Amino acid sequence: MKVVLLGPPGAGKGTQAGRLADSLGVTNAASGDLLREHQRKGTELGKLARPYMERGVLVPDDVTIPMVTDWISAPEQSKGFVLDGFPRNIAQAEAFDAELADKGGIDHVLCINVSEEELLRRLSGRWLCRNCQSAYHEEFSPPQKAEECDRCGGKLYQRDDDRPEAVKTRIEVYLNETEPLIGYYSDASILRKIDGEAPIDEVARALMAAVRI
Ligand code: AMP
Q: What is the DSSP letter of 43?
């Protein structure tokens, strides 16, 4: 089962990718997390990506495409995967299709829809776990102890690119570069749209129902 989650920043892709992957018994990854991991380790790839990520624009395709194709080719992903944040433009989608051509292609692309107003509310005030990437919100879903993850006890942090200027750029980049993928995957008849403003459990159920069809 190979699933891609599409949707603007703040739609809940990270939260839902983990839950969906657990339900399906496959692994999950977010291209943004893979890039942030490179930055933490101080790799060349991480250094190259940093200025793009700080501004909220896309890291060049010749960096992201090999990074993600390496990840999907690893043995851990042999049963399938849930991928969040990739592909992010038509060139990445075409490269991904070529890569998966002899593995049966993508089974489902699920697009999580959330209004711009709600995205802005969610991203300002978002806290993430450094260890397990769980997401919290200081107003809507605060952790039990300040700055500590309820699930694993990891330290919570706020992403640099959740600053208002970078958020605005990230939403514009989504509309200009990523939203065209909705047409691309509709044409391939593998796209389903999910209401991302419903409660978390309801969104999770809708995603699970969509992959069972
Ligand atoms: P995310 O964690 O998905 O919000 O991604 C954070 C940042 O990582 C984005 O604003 C981009 O700079 C970069 N990024 C993540 N995924 C991709 C991708 N597929 N292509 C290009 N840049 C990406």
A: -
